[in-house]
Amino acid sequence: MKLVEVKFEIPEDLEPRIAALAAEMGLSFDWAAQLLLWDGYVTHLRSSIERAEKELREPLAEEVAV
Description:
The chain is mainly α. 65% of the residues lie in helices and 0% in strands. It has helices at residues 15-25, 29-36, 42-65.
């Protein structure tokens, strides 16, 4: 088995959003970025961030409505 380390660059405009998601998920910035980049490309990162933000907000909206 080989351990592979991959380095990637996060666009500056996405850093605050990833940091906020990491805090909400209880993860480090690095882990959150890796999870969001699971698809592999920065173009997917933007949609992954939007999807994660939406999923984190939906349960909150349901709780408020109850």
